[in-house]
Amino acid sequence: MLSSFVRVLRRDAFVLLWYVGLALVAMQSVLPQPRELILGDLGDNIHYVYMVGWSAQAFLLDASPFIDPRLNYPDGLPLSSNDWPYLSYLLLAPATLVLGPVFGYNLAIFFSHLLSGYFTYLWAHRLTGSRLAALFAGTAFMLTPFRLLRSLGHANIVTTQMLPIFFWALDHCLNTRAKRERSLWFLGIATALLASSSQYLLIMSLVCGALYALYAILPDVRFLLLHGWRIAASVLLGTLVGALPSLSVLGANTFTPFAVGRTRIWSADPLNFLLPSSLHPLWGDWVERLRPEPYAGEKTLYVSLVALLLAGIGFWRLMREAQGRRRAFVWGATALSALVFALGTDLWINNEPLQRNDPFWLPAYYLAHLPGLGMMRVWSRFGIITILFVAMFAAFGLRYLLARERNLWRQRILATLVFGLLLLDLMPGPLPASALGPRSIDHWLAAQEGDFAVAFLPVDKPLINDLAIFGSLFHAKQLPAYMHAAHQPRAYQDFAAMALNFPDQRSVDYFAWRKFTYLILDTNEYNGWRAPAWAEVEQRLAEFPELRRVAEVEAFVVLAFEQ
């Protein structure tokens, strides 16, 4: 094992250094303080930092990393009620314990960048035999703006490193056309690893993978009948193993299917694949003025015009080769299928449906009615599979252009020019970053002895929940909490329903019955938006003498019940 690892390092040292450098550039905003800064504004990213922290702490507490018994009081909180890359978080637990949850979270994103590029490189190199062409494919996939924008908040979606491995394994299984057990095991393991990275990416890959297999096998019905079931069984087994944490919470009725009204707005526009990111440091402002995109984080699916041009050349060359024609068809049809799914439930242009009241439903609308797929909210994410195959086609295109040049220096000049254009086209620029650390109220709670329950108020404000669960890593007290606002567990739903109108008699009685030691009120959030103004709250608190003010920590007022 060690000797194989050393051989890989020697063989691909330059390639790995290249992707390490690109990953660091993509994360340049957090490099000055990797233990305090995270990419993006504070929001969903806090959930993933907490997950990283709990995955590490669970080892010290001899607890399951999949359920935090301190949260979702009085029950436990299953982390699988949100999509999380649990395998990578568990593998990085030692670094997290030493350097903190923010560092562990940043390290996980770094490796997602690095491995997304490297694994795409390995597949492209296996097929093309050209290191430069494969390096180009990995770079185009790694730096695609969709991936980088998802690193601002959705760590599950940025874990695309297993996408090329899954389709590589599937492709190998389909093209051996023989009963080779090793290829089936490879596919099963790849599927399990994908499932351990993201349920979203798993579902998209299973859908597109099924189409990939049909495109590759048909019309060879004999192979489908004799061996198709073996491939399907391998994928199913890998799915069950990798998705087991998520499957274990299905019976709790935590996951809520999304109605079409909530998914339609996430339909991609065909132009999203052709317009550069508005965060591009050179022409991003111009793109934003030309066509404002309020949902840029999810709908920026730019494939790179440089990669697209080379992909066109690669598709043309494969179509001219007897052995490549079938691959060109399968890849092209799969990329096009993923693009159609990314267009969502119905066609939208400039974030407006072409037919608002009587839409022509696209395949995603019917797909959403299948069991389990109603939890898909953002259909545009299918576009990452299209981007992957554009990058793979581009590898064949660059290989062809380099092979035409017999002169070594001309080859180098051409390669330098093409890579320079790609890097200019996909230049990430500095992404926004935010500081995240324990608050004064978290330190105050940590100083209070004992194991007890607290409630942060008001409810119905996501950031209150997000910062509360992150703070629990430092004070270890019990509190109501959820992992995903759309998939709240029953215990939190009960808590929110009772606490929504606090302070009133019903909520105060509930808190006393549940034996909350402290009620912690964020005065900044009592601002008249989805919660009364603080002056009104103070006036109403005077009606409940059993609640006494025991501390004020910055903007937080701490209440306790009179003994």
UniProtKB/TrEMBL annotation:
This is DUF6311 domain-containing protein. It comes from the Bacteria. Coiled coil: none annotated. The chain crosses the membrane at residues 86-111, 132-149, 184-217, 229-250, 300-316, 328-349, 378-401, 413-431. InterPro entries: DUF6311. Keywords: Membrane, Transmembrane, Transmembrane helix. It comes from Candidatus Viridilinea mediisalina. The keyword Transport does not apply. Residues 50-421 form the DUF6311 domain. Pfam families: DUF6311.
